[in-house]
Structures
1.
Amino acid sequence: MASSREKQRQQKILKGSCLQEEAVNPRGIEGVPSFSPAQTRETTREESSTYLMEQVVERNNMFQALHRVKSNKGAPGIDGMTIESLGPFLKDHWPRIREQLLNGTYQPKPVRRVEIPKQDSGGVRLLGIPSVLDRLIQQALLQILDPIFDPMFSPYSYGFRLGRKAQTAVKQARQYIQEGYRWVVDLDLEKFFGAPG
């Protein structure tokens, strides 16, 4: 029986689209993709993308994203815009930004790079700070895409996922130790395989 979160997720997905088919029966689950017998024509990826972007820029989704960005606080990006100035900026510029998002011409600003001292090693860690506007758009995208894709991720993946954190991973590791497992592999994929390019 589908959870209420799963039902909400499926309601947001364009009926008859390739994404809707994936949401009903993701590939790799029980090995068989599902196909709707009532489907009368194939929905193109472009139509699905357009529908998803319309969901992203929908008024309620944007207000939720704005609330989340404000509650997260954070420093200004490369353009110097503060969270407090985002609301007035959107009142003047939102129709243009919305149109750019819908037609695929929106260009995010470069990320401001900041060096944060590492407490344990004495070195520094690079931190990227997007502009406040880009953080708003990223949050709006996340709110639409997360319910679609998160259920397909491994239950053992803890990084940057809603309701999961490092402490949850540590708790799971402790459970493995209690079950008798003794090997731990710590792997940085970029260092293991090399940086792309």
Note: Strands lie at 112-117, 124-129.
2.
Amino acid sequence: MNELITQINDALWGYVLIAVLVACGLWFTWKTKGVQFRMLGEMLRLLTDSATSGTAKSSGKHISSFQAFAVSVATRVGTGNLAGVATAIAIGGPGAVFWMWVIALLGSATAFVESTLGQLFKQRQKDSFIGGPAYYIFKGLHCKWMAYLFAVLITVTFGLSYNSIQSNTICGAMNEAFGWNPLVVGIALSVMALIIVFGGIHRIANVSAILVPLMAIGYFLLALVIVVMNIELVPHVMKVIVTSAFGLEQGLGGALGATIMTGVKRGLFSNEAGEGSAPNVAATATVSHPVKQGLVQALGVFTDTLLVCSCTAFIILISGLYTVPELNGIALTQSALGAEIGSFGPPFIAVAIFLFAFSSIIGNYYYGEANIRFMTSSSTVLTVYRVCSGGVVVMFGALASLEMVWNVGDLCMALLTACNLVAIVTLGKYVFRLLDDYRSQKRKGIKDPVFHRSQLPEIEKELSCWE
């Protein structure tokens, strides 16, 4: 079974999705006039304004733009940043890091488009907003079967498959650092996850808003110290990344293809640009204009890949341990850090991966919940899903093999991304108009642009939240 899944993944990623992802990234970059570069300052302003405002402290029942950013980064910043980067380097060589950077730079425009659509087509529920690709496919494309297909795919991908990967990595890190039994760690993770996921999006948002900045800043500072301590090796590391990226070290052909494919897969798993995940949490934010959350979520891609993933890559490449065949996944990252800072390394990574991956587990769960609610209002179905996502698959991941959980995750990711890309390419025209409107209001000196559904008369009746 594992070999069959591997063959399907190679066919999908080798011949289809890489070209489509790059093409979409280039298209959205051109149509938005490089929004991910030109409006970087505005992204930072929006994020800091939200983080220091009253809404960021969860006043009332509102989810702030910063909290929505934190939840989405919580799912992005996880095993992909520590174990995923290590796997990419072990399989595809140092050049895989370069292609992770490329897919992040292009993917941030894709992330902007999909998250803006998530905000545009969101709908109100009892104590917050809800939305995502299933909602904009249903309300924007009026394609019910495709909306339900996406809802099923993302529920399986994030709520089930990806959570098994997070659990698998946590248990591997704890076993490597402390010798803890994966079964015991899996039980503890399941209990903790179930407590939080039964609390709903507000509890998830509050937990993420605390964990995400803490873990990202701490890990970045440690990586920065290691890079500074080995500053003389940085030019060599950059040279190895670039030459390997274009097959100049290993020779053109199959090795180059494996490098590109691995870099794109692990980059997408980490930053999720185009997968259709971030729009689910982007829709929960209370903002005055859909573009605001699109910009904030585009910043999340930079934070994930260009910052956190690069930290891991430099630690591994500086150590030189990526050439050891026996090391892969989280074990490679732990060994690399241990080589640089001594016996403190593996335990630090174990704690970091716990924070990274556990926050991803609860964030991934919410993506499934949002889509369960789209398909049915049954509280029984939601309860069963909560038990499966927070309990059953967490335990499965704790006991399954590294190869199995990653292969299943790659297959789910491919199907999910293909479905979402069709939708955002078709609906992107609305985002381009929204961006023009936002820029126009800013040029007029309006500090806080506002959107009203009458500005898009052809879909006005579908935009009930923008009165």
Note: Confidence is low (pLDDT under 50) at residues 51-60.
3.
Amino acid sequence: MVNIGNDWDGILADEWKKPYYLLLRQFLKEEYSSKEIYPPMGDIFNALKYTSFQGVKAVIIGQDPYHGPGQAHGLCFSVKKGVEPPPSLQNIYKEMAADVGIVPPSHGELTHLAKQGVLLLNTVLTVRRSAAASHRGQGWENFTDRVIKELNNKKDPIVFLLWGRPAAEKAKIITNPIHLKLEAPHPSPLSAYRGFFGCKHFSLANEYLVKNGIEPIEWQIPD
């Protein structure tokens, strides 16, 4: 029913037939045909398309997609080039600069990270225009739980970066002791000063990867 184009297809083959997903699919067909929904339908599964199961080194878990026009494109916290980086992403860049010395790029597109093995996964993959959390409770949580369960069973160490409450709720799924869980408040302006700034998740992630013989992430995003 869904073609991702890499090893996720085999891993998730049974998910598309489950009753909750069939109901979610019907809900999405009605929503996309009658309202303005983000991201565009073809971008919903971009996180999995850009980062294969085998290639995952780190996972950043967001909430639901940006709900402004032209922002969401299927990777959490990312916007395409030409779109002003939203405040949460600007705060992520600030912490990256303080932690690992990056120069914040002039754009907000994070595909550079996704292609290196950073799975940029929202807990809910779609949203109605100007209505944050409007697609919560429709089944996406079941789907993203399944993705995280599969990653939890992976035999290679993964670093999970969990920012904010919806991401923290996924922490209980991550039980495999070979993985590292890093938790912090959400990087939004409302909560970044409560502990996101200074969390040093980017350097901690790379330290863990290197310790386990895995190539670190190049956090510097090219312009």
Note: The first helix runs from residue 8 to 11.
4.
Amino acid sequence: MPITTFTSRELNQDVTRAKKAAQSGPVFITDRGKPAHVLLSIEEYRRLTKERRNIADSLAMPGVAEIEFEPPRVKIGTQAADLS
């Protein structure tokens, strides 16, 4: 699935081209060089917003691999139980 990028100015100048690009994948719209919005086809939007039943479905979503997420490691210690 190709990802297309348009600046806000490019989008304003050629909305039709952006809508056509959204038929084959998400269109990122940048503002001052940073991603600010995403244009999706209605089919893709509906597919992404349907109810997820489990974590595996959510992790299988397109684009998840590009998300940077590194949670801190948690150390869980054990201690003796007081059975007195």
Note: The beta strands are 4-7, 27-31, 34-39.
